[in-house]
Amino acid sequence: MTRDPAITSKIMASVRNRDTGPELVLRRELHRRGLRYRLRTNLPGRPDLVFPGARVAVFVDGDYWHGNTWRLRGAESFDSYFDARANGDFWRDKITRNIDRDRDVNLSLAEAGWLVIRIWESDLHRDLSSCADRVQGSVHATRQPKAGLV
């Protein structure tokens, strides 16, 4: 089955790249726990949540766009998942570029002294509390003491 390119274009234009449902769920839970964060920064990769004092950058990664869907759907491998798809080579290349970019962003931020946390969208759906615990624990563990306080 092939879809009209105009329909595909309309669908792709509606895909959000920020303020997604999973991001909002995590943000609400962290805010409820008393954590405060920034949303818009100039950091590489544009993290979804940033804790400047703790130097923690959080990304909420969509399973499809960041290469986790093949695991969720029980495929044998990343490649085999796309072998069975229409335009599989195109999507495999697109998702591979996203994965490579994510790795480069992680390295860039780590070299600049940031802790990077990546959370799969599916993990948020499965266990929001554990995901929030992971962020909260990292923020508290890496937070810098205020100047003059012991």
Write the layout of secondary structure elements.
Blueprint: H1 5-13, H2 21-32, E1 49-51, E2 56-61, H3 69-72, H4 78-83, H5 88-111, E3 115-120, H6 121-126, H7 128-142
Parallel strand pairs: 2-3
Antiparallel strand pairs: 1-2
Helix pairs in contact: 2-7
Largest sheet: 3 strands, mixed
* Biggest sheet strand line-up: 1-2-3
Order of helices and strands: HHEEHHHEHH
Q: Give the fraction of residues assigned to helices.
A: 40-55%
Outline type: elongated
Q: Strand content of the residues, in percent?
A: 5-15%
Low-confidence stretches: none
Oligomer: single chain
Q: If you average the pLDDT, what whole number results? A: 89
Class inferred from helices and paired strands: mainly alpha
What is Rg?
18 Å
**SS summary, helix count:** 7
Q: Which terms summarize this structure?
A:
single chain; 150 residues; mainly alpha; Endonuclease, Chain A; 7 helices; 10% strand
Notes on the protein architecture:
The protein is built from seven helices and three strands. It is mainly α. It has a single domain, classed as 3-Layer(aba) Sandwich (Endonuclease, Chain A), CATH 3.40.960.
Short description:
This protein has 150 residues and is mostly helical.
